């Protein structure tokens, strides 16, 4: 395999998000595997001046070609994002149609316009819908409506793609339940650069002031932040722990307590790594997820994990390295935080060790990119 087209709804650092970080890592690791990559993407206006050489080596940049495609913007109407995604996919198609690739790797909805026209392309098209949040539990009526709209392109992509990538866990059954052709689903996990993985001797000793919990993410209803904040308000004064929030949490949602810290968005990777290294337990109480990079980052940094059993989370977290919450999130958080607070130091350290070893054995990008390249070679058309 000599050349791949990577279609993505933005790529880190020009656009921040889970899919965008995944696209960034794919581009880097394809390049490091001596495969040329055309990255079709858009970037936000405020990030136009970001220099590529801050994030990619010279050797990587010799194999990566960035092609900017404008993501269309329309006035807000019901379904405006769906229509914009279709138009973006069409623009991608028009840029790819006359080029020769060994494979087209399409993230999110980017393959939508290609599907009924694939016969005219002398290429191999595979799609990765990532978290499939539209098929996971809804939170409220607004979320349910959004999910119904997102199912329109998702269903077409799932049912018409010759190859659907699943991050694993519950996502594979979601794909097949919603019409993925027989044997079309390829399980390929998310990954993390091995520079994140600490030596087990670097695991911090338990602080005398108690456990240090950490939440990393943006304020979004499906992330379960409101449930987490409610549990903290109820327990923080009576229990010996502290918690830090990394991400843009609105001021009116923040708790005023000396052991609850809101540190805002931290973009600097080294500073972010320090936050993970200083924490004992990452809390990820989402209603829906794919395979969050933040969990892999926390595991690689020696954290135990509290998370809901959604998406592909169960491939990373179990009772050996943390706690999986089933059912009601508030009840689950109450229970597992209490359990965590009553662990002795050895039990907590054992969970942290499992996190580090599991990432090392299963989820490094060195391993994942080999699996990805092998899977692409074996797709039957």
TrEMBL record:
InterPro entries: Glyco_trans_4-like_N (IPR028098), Glycosyltransferase_grp1 (IPR050194). CDD domains: GT4_PimA-like (cd03801). Keywords: Transferase. The keyword Transferase applies. Residues 16-195 form the Glycosyltransferase subfamily 4-like N-terminal domain. GO terms for molecular function: glycosyltransferase activity. It comes from the Bacteria. This is Glycosyltransferase involved in cell wall biosynthesis. It comes from Gelidibacter algens.
């Amino acid at each position: 395999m000599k050349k791949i087209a990577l279609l993505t709804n933005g790529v880190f650092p020009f656009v921040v998000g889970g899919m965008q970080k995944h696209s960034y890592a794919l581009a880097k690791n394809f390049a490091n595997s001596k495969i040329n990559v055309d990255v079709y993407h858009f970037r936000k206006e405020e990030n136009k001046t970001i220099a590529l050489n801050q994030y990619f080596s010279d050797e990587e940049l010799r194999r990566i070609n960035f092609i900017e495609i404008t993501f269309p913007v329309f006035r807000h109407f019901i379904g405006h994002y769906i229509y914009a995604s279709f138009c973006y996919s069409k623009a991608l198609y028009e840029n790819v149609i006359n080029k020769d690739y060994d494979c087209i790797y399409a993230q999110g909805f980017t393959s939508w316009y290609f599907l009924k026209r694939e016969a005219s392309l002398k290429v191999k098209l595979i799609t990765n819908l990532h978290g499939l949040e539209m098929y996971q539990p809804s939170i409220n009526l607004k979320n349910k409506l959004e999910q119904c709209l997102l199912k329109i392109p998702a269903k077409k992509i799932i049912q018409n793609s010759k190859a659907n990538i699943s991050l694993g866990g519950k996502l594979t059954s979601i794909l097949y339940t919603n019409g993925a052709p027989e044997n079309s689903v390829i399980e390929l996990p998310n990954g993390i650069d091995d520079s994140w993985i600490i030596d087990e001797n670097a695991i911090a000793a338990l602080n005398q002031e108690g456990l240090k919990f950490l939440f990393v993410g943006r304020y979004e209803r499906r992330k379960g932040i409101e449930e987490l904040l409610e549990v903290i308000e109820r327990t923080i004064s009576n229990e010996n722990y502290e918690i830090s929030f990394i991400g843009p949490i609105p001021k009116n949602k923040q708790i005023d307590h000396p052991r609850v810290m809101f540190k805002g968005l931290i973009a600097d990777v080294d500073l972010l790594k320090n936050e993970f290294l200083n924490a004992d337990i990452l809390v990820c109480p989402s209603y829906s997820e794919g395979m969050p990079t933040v969990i892999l980052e926390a595991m690689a940094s020696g954290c135990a994990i509290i998370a809901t059993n959604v998406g592909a989370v169960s491939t990373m977290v179990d009772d050996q390295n943390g706690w999986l919450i089933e059912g009601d999130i508030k009840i689950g958080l109450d229970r597992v935080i209490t359990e965590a607070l009553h662990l002795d130091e050895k039990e907590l350290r054992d969970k942290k060790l499992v996190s580090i070893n599991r990432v090392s054995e299963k989820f490094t990008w060195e391993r994942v990119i080999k699996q990805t390249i092998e899977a692409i070679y074996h797709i039957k058309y």
